[in-house]
Amino acid sequence: MASKADFSAEEWKTIGLAPIVTSMFISMADPSGPIGLMKEMFAAVSSIVEGAKEAASLQIVKDLATDLQARELKPDLPKFGSKEEAMAFAKQTVSEAVALLAARSPDEVQPFKQFLYDTAQKAAEAGKEGGFLGFGGTAVSEAERQALSDLAATLGLTV
Question: Which candidate among 43, 85, 112, 152 keeps its CA 20 to 30 Å from the CA of 29?
Fold first, then answer.
């Protein structure tokens, strides 16, 4: 079972960014303002922490949650010139994180991919899109559904 100890500091940074950028990928697909963004990012962090509590959780997810709670996991994102640049960075980071895990523990790749997708889905469901002052709107917009579909394709998942 792969753990933080199996990766260099730079590799661990990439793995730690993966669940954060999956949520960013969703947020960038359909920006919902600062409150919606905060809800979506909080959902991503909560997903990591809650995922670590599950008995069947991967050790790597438990290590991510531990670092996140200890504030050792600090997302250091570059400045992006456009939405497309941010989304491309997210896809690249997710792909690199999956490849790093595949090299160390191939049996854990599919559950890790599913964890990443689930984190993005929880972020998508966290804030309503559209509506006014919290009334109306939809839980997951069409743009977010498309982003989830794109993320699933990047991860090689069928959803």
Answer: 112
